[in-house]
Design brief:
This protein is an alpha/beta fold. The protein folds into two domains: 228 residues, Glycogen Phosphorylase B (Rossmann fold), CATH 3.40.50.2000; 235 residues, Glycogen Phosphorylase B (Rossmann fold, 3-Layer(aba) Sandwich). Strands 1-3-2-4-5-6-7 form a seven-stranded mixed sheet. Strands 10-13-12-11-14-15-16 form a seven-stranded mixed sheet, sandwiched between helices. The radius of gyration is 23 Å and the shape is globular.
């Protein structure tokens, strides 16, 4: 069994964007795609990351690559393999780049042997599959160590970093010191925010590309309200039975109809909330930086103050054993669960912990879609955030969002207009006060939700993301001729 795993990608036409954004933006994108195709001379664009399930990168790649393939660009996606210790290490790098100590602390020189061995093995296997003129986009710290080997084999490499910190700390510096040797010869470095770029890496090779969502994916497609309720009743988040006039159905990424079959692993005290109970929802990984425990404690404060009305809280994340590159998930979930048991009965009765099934990626996305659409208030109280696609998703669904003023969340929410940002994620009183102001004011929630939808439509849909990537690749191909390489037919390697 090889180290590199292929992720299957279909092809989707950009025509679906015409009713949302108009024909002119679609035509502009198609024109740039034609230029990229011509300059690739039959080459492929490879995307390489560390997991096909869970996290923002795995959310963004399927639709973006499907649209690229719909424009006749040979876009591919492969996932690297590593042992448990490798992903423990890369999670430490992840925390360091966010400015957090994390479990185990920032990476050290002694960690390079493990990191380089895994990256070299994966790069060597991928290199056997590359053709002349191929472009390779490496995503995040897990893949940065592959860059020197692929460049030596003649690939044109882009490194795409989806995370970062607004403020330099010793942890941030240590994280970048660990990665820097692998990035020295990479011709293009892509970041989500200018603030994330280390000073000594800044310069003409840096590009800024904000992430996006796919408006037509199972996670973001329009859903009838009865279908939303049917899905949530089926998985166990809301009280049932499902309405007779609706089934828990959704549309897969390939356009085929499907039904939610699996259920969530639920922890609650007492019956599930009724469909009319206003839900406060946070959906994220069980990651310490997402601060699920803090959301729970802040909501408990709201209840204790008597300002929660009849609202309830749902904290939802993936099955903790399902995300290969997130070894902290089980511990974080059990920390939240332990905290839940310590709450007073009045709070436990109104707080649900839900581990969502992930065996079927589209099914999981449909469940998240239903949760975000049913939630009156969607929360993202992250301690640090690279961009915060769950905020974008909620905004697209016209939900009112309360989030921390951190990372790319600041680029999405216009304070008081399209959502509310709290300045300090650890200030539970400020969080509870923000909740109280929205729980008691449905008209304000509706106004903010409408403004959020308009902002997401204008700035954070996939077609803008495609334009940005296409422009970077087009510029890169224009600046460098296809490498003069031959293929060793006996070994399949680029010579």
């Amino acid at each position: 069994m090889g180290l590199i795993s292929d992720v299957e990608i279909g092809a989707v036409s950009l025509d679906r964007f015409v009713p949302v954004l108009g024909p002119e933006r679609v035509a502009t994108t198609l024109g740039i795609a034609a230029s990229v195709r011509e300059k690739l001379h039959g080459g492929a664009v490879w995307n390489v990351n560390s997991t096909a399930v869970g996290g923002g990168v795995a959310e963004m790649l399927p639709p973006l690559l499907a649209y690229a393939r719909g424009m006749q660009i040979d876009a591919r996606w492969v996932v690297i393999h590593g042992e448990h210790d490798f992903f423990v290490l890369t999670k430490r790098v992840h925390h360091a780049l966010h400015g957090s100590v994390g479990e185990g602390g920032p990476p050290h020189e002694v960690d390079r042997a493990l990191y380089e061995a895994t990256c070299t093995a994966n790069a060597s296997e991928l290199a056997l599959r590359l053709g002349p003129g191929d472009v390779v986009i490496l995503h995040d710290p897990q893949t940065a160590g592959m860059a020197p080997h692929l460049i030596d084999r003649g690939a044109r490499v882009i490194w795409r970093c989806h995370i970062g910190a607004d403020v330099r700390t010793p942890e941030v510096d240590q994280g970048w010191a660990f990665l820097r040797p692998y990035l020295e010869r990479v011709p293009v470095l892509v970041f989500s925010r200018r603030e994330y770029v280390p000073r000594d890496l800044d310069g003409p090779r840096v590009r800024i590309i904000q992430p996006s969502i796919d408006a037509f994916s199972p996670k973001n497609e329009d859903m009838d309200v009865d279908v939303v309720r049917a899905i949530l009743a089926h998985v166990g988040v809301l009280s049932g039975p499902c309405p007779d006039r609706a089934s828990p159905v959704y549309t897969r990424r390939d356009g085929s109809p499907a039904r939610v079959e699996r259920v969530a692993d639920i922890v609650r005290a007492g019956p599930a909330p009724d469909v009319d109970v206003p839900l406060v929802v946070q959906v994220s990984r069980w990651d310490p930086l997402k601060d699920m425990h803090g959301v729970m404690c802040g909501f408990a404060k709201l209840i204790a103050s008597g300002r929660a009305g009849d609202s309830a809280l749902v904290l939802a994340g993936p099955n903790v054993h399902a995300v290969a590159d997130d070894p902290e998930g089980p511990r974080v979930y059990h920390d939240v669960l332990d905290g839940w048991y310590k709450l007073p009965p009045s709070a436990r009765a109104r707080i649900t912990l839900a581990m969502l099934p992930t065996a079927d990626v589209d099914e999981n996305a449909a469940i998240v879609n239903a949760l975000q659409r049913h939630g009156e208030i969607v929360v993202q109280k992250s301690l640090h955030e690279g961009f915060g696609l769950t905020v974008t998703e909620a905004m697209w669904k016209s939900r009112t969002v309360i989030a921390t003023r951190t990372g790319g969340i600041q680029d999405q929410i216009v304070q008081g207009e399209s959502g509310i940002m709290i300045d300090d994620a650890l200030d539970l009183d400020a969080f509870a006060n923000a909740l109280a102001g929205l729980v008691s004011d449905p008209d304000r929630r509706r106004r903010m939700g409408a403004a959020a939808r308009a902002r997401a439509t204008e700035h954070f849909l996939g077609i803008r993301h495609l334009l940005d990537y296409a422009a970077v690749i087009d510029e890169m191909l224009s600046a460098t001729a296809a490498p003069a390489r031959t293929v060793d037919q006996s070994a399949g390697a680029i010579a």
